[in-house]
Amino acid sequence: MSDVKLGVIGLGSMGLGMARNAIAAGIATKGYDIFPAAREAFAAAGGTPAASVAETAADVDVLIVMVVNAAQVRDAVFGPDGAAAAMRPGAVVMVCSTIAPKDAREIGRDLAEAGLLVIDTPVSGGKVGAEAGTLTLMASGPEAAFDLAAPVIAAVSQTVYRLGDEPGMGSTYKVVHQLAAGVHLAVAAEVMAFAAHAGCDTGVLADIVSKSAGRSWMFTDRVPHMLDDDFAPRSTVDIFVKDLGLVIETGHASKTPLPLAAAAHQLFLAASSMGHGQIDDSAVVKVYESATGSPVKRREN
Fold this sequence. Notes:
The protein has 13 helices and 9 strands. The chain is an alpha/beta fold. Helix 8 packs across helix 10 and helix 8 crosses helix 11. It has a 6-stranded parallel beta sheet, with helices on both faces. The chain has a 3-stranded mixed beta sheet with strand order 7-8-9. It is globular, with a radius of gyration of 20 Å.
């Protein structure tokens, strides 16, 4: 059992997995989500569901904020029912959402002014990593925050990169990483659509690429969804619309040309405009299927 008390704001596919691992590690965990079903799943895992953000944040040592974007982070911590006013001075806020570096710096500054310690802590590993407790954390913040949050960090992650003392650098690394993730996923969809339209057996082609030089983590993880025609959301198309938008925004700020990121962003935008925004991000393949008329789904034997 750990003496650290944890609160989790956002009990979706990522936050719920992280909360479950904290509970399994003996950390007393409260949680809140706007959706009742998420709170019920959290309670079934042994967590203590709260009726509000403020109730979740009260009397905890560490608060994980795992929501969709910077606007939701700000609302969670500084809104009318916000966490910042409810937390005791010196507690730690781990901002785990993928947000722009400038937003991470601003939110970190405002939380510090409220007397709270902040770790800018975007994560990678998806729903699978969250559930397994094997996330990679790209984290920046003061030493005291890492010391207090150590049991929570150990429970939810396998690899931690310490990237400095100031909020913003964790998010910078994550945004750069998302360029690779988004482009690799778009390329995987293009490869599979090309295979289908060229007459290849898509299942065989996927096996070849997965065992050859063209493989990537995104290919091996997401292509099975395309082959199975299974687009139940683990992560969504609209998440990559947002994340690649952050990539391009950050590239503009540093005057870095990012043509591949821009092309991938357009593909995810197209998938979203076709009505696929809230299904699995591997549904970017549907843009190609619509263009070619050739389904990627594996052949029936």
